[in-house]
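Input sequence (184 aa), recorded before submission:
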Amino acid sequence: MSNQSIMNKIAVPYAEALLEIAQNEDSLKETSKNLSSISTILSESRDFQMLLSNPLIGIPVKKDILQKLFTNQVSDFILNFLLFLVDKRRISLLNTIIEKYLKLTYQLESITIAELSSAVEFTETQQNKLIDKIKIITKSNNVKLITSTDSNLIGGFVVKIGSKVIDASLAGKLRKMSFYLNTN
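Predicted structure, token format:
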């Protein structure tokens, strides 16, 4: 079993519990918003990720940093959840827990998640047009587009919707051309 699948198995119960409490508290949107902003901070700061994952840094130090960073930035419920994760020595799984929580929330709200990787940043107009096309393809009313840039694509984009992949990148076309030329 891979390290990632073990992390996923550990993260899912925390995400499910968080979702259940958020539903009971009627704070689903606020919780999702708070967790999204925390996820953004984690993705932008590799040092912060490493600090939370470092077992040599004590629990009181991690709690103090989280309280200073997130007091008045996120709800008390989320701050207490973060402190709970520190106590249980699961704070290193925070990004995975947030990812699982958001996926569960999207499923609950019947939102189709589409991951867009492009060589250059898409404009808002381009994103909206792509979302409209994805709505037609998936027959879904709600589409959440998660964007990232990948210079390895050379040009174009790749969209992942569940297990489906739409590769309209230059790198993908070159790969197909190479495969075709090597088989003949």
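Checked by second reader. The chain has two domains: 1-107, 111-182.
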